[in-house]
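Dear colleagues,

For the upcoming journal club I promised to circulate an example of a predicted protein-ligand complex. I picked one with iron/sulfur cluster because it came up in last month's discussion. The inputs are reproduced below in full, followed by the predicted structure.
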Amino acid sequence: MMRTTCPYCGVGCQVEPEVREGRVVRVLAPDLPPNHGALCVKGRFGLDFPFSGKRLLYPMVRERKGAPLRRATWEEALDFAAGKLLEVLRRKGPGGIAVFPSAKTTNEEVYLAQKLARALLSTHNVDHCSRLCHSSSTAALSRSLGGASMTNPIEDVWKTDLFLVVGSNTTETHPVIAAMIKKRVRQGARMIVVDPRYTGMAEAATLWLRVRPGTDVFLLNAMARYLLEEGLWDRAYVEARTEGFAEWRASLEGYTLEAAQEVTGVPKEGIAEAARLYATTERAGAYWAMGVTQHTKGTATAQALVNLALLTGKVGKEGAGLNPLRGQNNVQGAGDMGALPDVYPGYLRVAEEGPRRRFEALWGVPLPEAPGLRMTEVFAAIPEVEAIYLIGEDPVTSEPYQDHVKEKLLALPFLVVQDILENETTPFADVVLPAASFLEKEGTFTNTDRRVQRVRKLLDPPGEARPDWWITQELGKRLAQALGRPWPTYPGPETIWEEVRRAIPEMVGGISYARLEAQGVRWPCPEEGHPGEAVLFREGFNTPTGKARFFPAPYTPPAETPSPDYPLTLSTGRVLFHWHGGTLSRNSQLNQAYPELKVEVNPIDAKRLGLEDGEPVYVVSRRGRIRARAWVTERTPEGVVYAPFHFAEAPANRLTLDALDPVSRIPEYKVSAVRLEKA
Ligand code: SF4
């Protein structure tokens, strides 16, 4: 039986799909890390989307705006796409084009797409969906520690005595990790959960802090201030391994327990207890996800977690650390491979001369010095940005303020959509390029704890679909020929990976395909024979001084707060049976188990509106309205409604606002003002 990697979440479970007569008939899981035989419902029953009737089967071209998409040959479609991109390049320069690689494609495919942007189109306008999920974690971790990933491996769960889980509904979003954590809690470990909703994690918690949406940073700052007052901090660690302490300490002045109770709604005794438990447990690990990051103060909130961990000496130790749980299966890999506007592969800064020289030598072309635009900035810059090469993304579903995104896409002169399935963005495309799914190609994915794992081909792609690396390579050939730039022909993904190993040997130099036959290997792994680093920053940090840096993490109120017309707060997110924009899970049998949008409404709010459980309801914001079914439940607090964003026919992102975090430019998905109307 062939082993490959689950295409859904960043846990990166190893799966053995059994294929009969061109169909997945069952999925087994080997006793290998990271999942050791365990799978969630998505890995077990959700791998049938490659057989969906919505597969894109042949290239399509729209000759001019207003004309319909028509079937084309690969030659025609690629020539057309290359010709249009060159036209924009000549007219607007490199700033007129953006390339968005996908966190659902392999490392090799991401590497090639960002190389096409940088080495052929001379633009750093490269970004991916991390902009919408963990870019704020990346910003905080990079500036403080010099690295943007989980510091500790998943299996450290078994060594952890206290879990601090902030803004992560792990039970539904990373179910296999949640099951491990809960088992460890049953063995005696303690768990503090900070979340407005009564999630599966809150249910299993030793201490649950029901924080008001968007106030976590106040709570975390108050915990730090309390620990400083009580002397419950690691002075030796702070003095030896950090800098910026005095300035940060001064920034905590107003974050008293009393003020925190007022702002967050959490009793001050609970905040103090959480702080004491975290500080006094040697092996205490912090875990977080979108509840922390998707705010206009997302970077500040992630920073407050980093500061707390440094204050208590939790980084660089087993069973502890800072652990952002990455969403998409290869979102860690997409960042590692340079699908970001300010860094090359290996997080080497585009603004620094050393990295630029390294990639100029490797690729044989001069490279631009200034960082590019971020994904959310690219959409704002349309029509100044005239062309987007979009791979495996559905911005109409995933970006905030959907009507605005649609307006922008209508104003965009040229859009290439490369994907496996038709989605909400496909109708806006000028060229559609059909891609192979994870079952139909070779390559590697990197999971949330930095483990590089193989993706293996079990089936031929349907129709004329081709692997993303092949499509990007063919498009690149045409651009390179016209521009007179070098562009090697790669016989397959392994050759691309070999170039990655040469490009960033300090990160993945020791990880060969041959080595990955047995099981995944974690980076950093600089040479063959190196086991791969499990715990980061045991010795020093990856900063110029080798020390970690504290940064002030100020609380600011949400960009939109409830008003008489819109008296409720909307928070968006995910459910166990679906995944992100729903392109994969809603085209699998999972959709039968969870076929429509249910909006969580607290019983007090429901009573006020005369709303019964299961009744249809409209959720209305200043930007639009969607129809859903009310789920009257105490899971969500009074005044807060919760809507997953997987449903194209009732898109939660029609309601969300596009206010951005000033540092990372992540949107504020977690707090919008809405009202409910009986449908
Ligand atoms: Fe797939 Fe994530 Fe579920 Fe594992 S936990 S089976 S990687 S969706």
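Two points we might discuss: Residues 74-92 form the longest helix (19 residues). The chain has a mean pLDDT of 97.

See you all on Thursday,
B. R.
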